[in-house]
Specification:
The complex is a heterodimer. Chain A has one domain (5-15, 43-135): 6-pyruvoyl tetrahydropterin synthase/QueD (Tetrahydropterin Synthase, Chain A, 2-Layer Sandwich), CATH 3.30.479. Chain A contains four helices and five strands. Chain A has helices spanning 26-33, 66-81, 86-89, 100-112, and strands at residues 5-17, 42-54, 84-85, 120-126, 132-135. The longest helix of chain A is centred in the middle third of the chain and has 16 residues, at 66-81. Chain B contains four helices and five strands; from the N terminus they run βαβαβααββ. A five-stranded mixed β-sheet of chain B has the order 3-1-2-4-5. In chain B, 29% of the residues lie in helices and 32% in strands. Chain B has one domain: Tetrahydropterin Synthase, Chain A (2-Layer Sandwich). Chain A binds chain B through residues 12, 14-17, 34-36, 38, 40-45, 82-85, 88-89, 128-129, and chain B through 9, 11-14, 31-33, 35, 37-42, 79-82, 85-86, 126-127.
């Protein structure tokens, strides 16, 4: 019998960014990314679901201590991204376009190294209430 | 008298920073919101107008016209913009949600059709923080 359970921690942060490929000129950036390429940046309220899947421990009944997960996210993700300019303030995006896809992947890589390998991790990241990405894809 | 509300969205970068103050004082008062490189939000705007229902149309306002007014005079100027740098009607003003709501009111007011009055601008900066402005 499959005893795996998924637990989730919801978090939020806000940030400025722009979508821009430095290998292209401004016209091509505008043609591809439209208003999102505004050189003066724009911004979003990001909402994030961090999903952890595994078997509840016999001794605790927990898949993961959600208080521990909350602090892990706060210290390693929110401190890095909240109220920041993703392009200018976050080293991971110095040479990586901060699309919702790439931000989800960066958050995954940060958390993956800090969570027990026995547990599965998935990030769902909302850029707006209507646009979101999931990594890894299920 | 009847109230009609149109809900719209835009997103923008901004920072809260008073140029008259030192960097230290700005950080003390505005915290992370004073980040020199800006941060940003998904704003949700609720525009409420009021008026009598016309006998011939059954409308207080044609909602399509209200939508066009908000689009032309507010969203075109704010969406995907840097509020501090890109928006003429915010020049020299602190880009707080409060001031933004007041300025949105001022942008729309002169363009409302005869017999239609502004009632409220409700502006969400995040799902948990919003302001309401009633024009006085």
């Amino acid at each position: 019998m499959n005893k795996k359970v998924s637990v989730y921690r919801k978090e939020h942060f806000n940030a400025a960014h722009r979508l821009h490929n430095p290998a292209w000129n401004e016209e091509k950036n505008y043609a591809v990314f439209g208003k999102c390429s505004n050189p003066n940046y724009h911004g979003h309220n990001y909402e994030m679901d961090v999903k952890i899947t595994g078997e509840p421990g016999a001794d605790t009944g927990y898949v993961i201590d959600l208080k521990f997960l909350s602090e892990l996210i706060k210290e390693n993700v929110l401190e890095k991204l909240d109220h920041k300019n993703l392009n200018l303030d976050v080293p991971e995006f110095a040479h990586l376009n901060p699309t919702v896809e790439n931000i989800a992947m960066v958050i995954y890589e940060i958390l993956r190294s800090k969570i027990d390998k026995k547990l599965d991790l998935q990030i769902r990241l909302y850029e707006t209430p209507k646009n979101f990405a999931e990594y890894p894809a299920s | 008298m009847l109230f009609l509300t149109r809900i719209e969205h835009f997103n923008a970068a901004h920072k809260l920073y008073n140029p008259e103050w030192s960097k230290e004082k700005n950080e003390l008062v505005f915290g992370k919101c004073a980040n020199g490189n800006w941060h940003g939000h998904n704003y949700e705007l609720h525009v409420t107008i009021k008026g009598e229902v016309a006998a011939d149309t059954g409308f207080v306002i044609n909602a399509k016209i209200l939508s066009s007014l908000i689009n032309d005079f507010v969203l075109e100027k704010l969406d995907h913009k840097n509020l501090n740098m890109d928006v003429v009607f915010l020049k020299g003003k602190m880009c707080s949600t409060e001031n933004l709501a007041i300025e949105i009111w001022k942008q729309l007011l002169p363009h409302l059709p005869e017999g239609v009055q502004m009632h409220r601008i409700k502006l969400y900066e995040t799902p948990r923080i919003f302001v309401e402005y009633f024009g006085d």
